[in-house]
Structure formats: C-alpha cells, structure tokens
C-alpha cells in the first residue's frame, strides 16, 4: 500500500513542515480491509502531509455531488469499472488513477477536473 499511494500522490513532505490544508477524498479497493481499517488514509496522510484525508470504496450515485463537494480533491488510488463509469457519466472524467480537482459553481453544482498539480 505505501508504494502504491506514493506512486499516485508522490512524497509531499515540505522542507519547513507546513501541512497541506486541502481536503482529500481517496477512492480505492478494500483489499484486506485497507480502507475500513484506515490504513490507506494513514499512508496517504503521511505522503500528502495533510491531516484531512478520507477514503471510500464505493460511490452512491444519488449522493455523489454532496459527498465530493466536501473535498478539494478526489484521488483515485485503485480505479475500477463501476467507479470509472460513474465519474464519466456525472463529471466527464476518466476515473483513472490520479488527482481530480473539485470545482464548485455558484449554483451549488460541482465539476471534477484532472489535476496535474496542487
């Protein structure tokens, strides 16, 4: 898990110890309970140097906008076909491994944009 998370998010420990204040939602599989036992989140907090990291293993279509709008970034650690189909249908993104910036509009809607930097 640590090598996989580092490959996706990089190692973001800053020189001067400043925490990243962005809010991250990770998506991944729950192999061996790695999400339900908070291991994925723990590892991601270390590599992101961010205290606000949550993870999910499934999206509920009716609640996706509400859930995602609470975060600054969606980070797909382990993509799967269902997640990719839902992200494509609702936000027009591939759902491939990587970062997606959450953009909130003035009318309360949200969009996801592939993020190359944070």
Structure description:
- With 118 residues, this protein is of the alpha/beta class.
- Helix content is 29%, strand content 20%.
- The protein has four helices and five strands.
- The chain has helices spanning 2-9, 39-48, 64-68, 81-91; strands spanning 24-27, 53-56, 73-76, 98-104, 110-114.
- It has a five-stranded mixed beta sheet with strand order 2-1-3-4-5, with helices on one face.
- A hairpin with a 5-residue loop joins strand 4 (98-104) and strand 5.
- Helix 1 crosses helix 2 (39-48).
- It starts with a helix and ends with a strand.
- The mean pLDDT is 92.
* Lateral arrangement of strands in the main beta sheet: 2-1-3-4-5
Number of β-strand runs: 5
Please give the share of residues in helix.
25-40%
How would you name the oligomeric state of the polypeptide chains in this document? single chain
Count of DSSP-assigned helices? 4
Largest sheet: 5 strands, mixed
User: β content, as a range?
Assistant: 15-25%
Shape: globular
Structural class assignment = alpha/beta
H/E series = HEHEHEHEE
